[in-house]
Amino acid sequence: MAGILAIGEIASDAPTKLTLELATLARELAAASGQAASVLLRGQGAAAAAEAVAAQGVTVLVADGAIEGPTAAAIAAQAAAVIADRAPDWVLVGASPDGKDVAGALVGLTDLSVLVNGASVVWADGRPASDMSTFGGRLVTQSTVVAHRGIVIVRPGAVVATAAAAPGGVETIAVAAAVLPAVAVVETVAQAAATAAIEEARVIVGGGRGVGGPEGFAVIRDLADAFGGAVGATRAVVDAGWIGYSQQIGQTGKMVKPELYVACGISGAIQHKVGVQTAGTIVAINKDPDAPIAEFADLVVVGDLFEIVPRLTDAIRSRRGQS
User: Are 54 and 168 in contact, with CB atoms under 8 Å apart?
Assistant: First the structure.
């Protein structure tokens, strides 16, 4: 099966937003190249998630059942077996934490070349070409590989997930994966989940050094809760220990594409801009009218966030009928 194969991810028996985006991208690349598009779903809940993925117009390869051992290592071994059996030309992997681990393992297991951190992917000259941000987002380059087969790691928000005119099929498969060397888990750290994962959220409220300290994130969380969204942060406040790394947005954090991003007390350094520049609408709340974020925000509110944000929270709650 020469074609495009995407490696999907499942959360709570449903495909992640990034998985639906990969399915749409696989369909688009397949249409441009005259090939077939498929998505591999592996793990508990794969069968339940298959229909939503098939709606993107791709064939879904389902290997349901619990995964034993570290998730990324197990999925990489099984994906490598599917790649060996089906022989796709191109493999799409999402740039999630697990996806990056899967892609790294696949490079070793398959000897395929890899393109990393694609901000957008198109079909050009007989192979995928990937736009990548370089020099902290100051430049965008387009790269491809010389070979006619490879792996492409795709950032969240690179495409908009859209259902196809006709859904694809679902095929249940059995995967006989190679046994990888055992990995010793020396420590497990449990972290409380956010109200909504920032990669999935339609609205993100971000906090920077302007919030003053960990207690300052209380107003940020209140506004995010009012929107039904998620809390994000800059690297500076994560490094200071004010909030967990899972909420970091930017060049060394997560790339997000919410419909609305509200930046509170964030200067807007280029490293942070890289992570949010594809958001639908960016609203900045900052005391400094000359802060760098004013150059790319759609709306800038100049003032004290501790006066503005609580009023905005009350207004949102009132409009949505919340108490």
Answer: yes
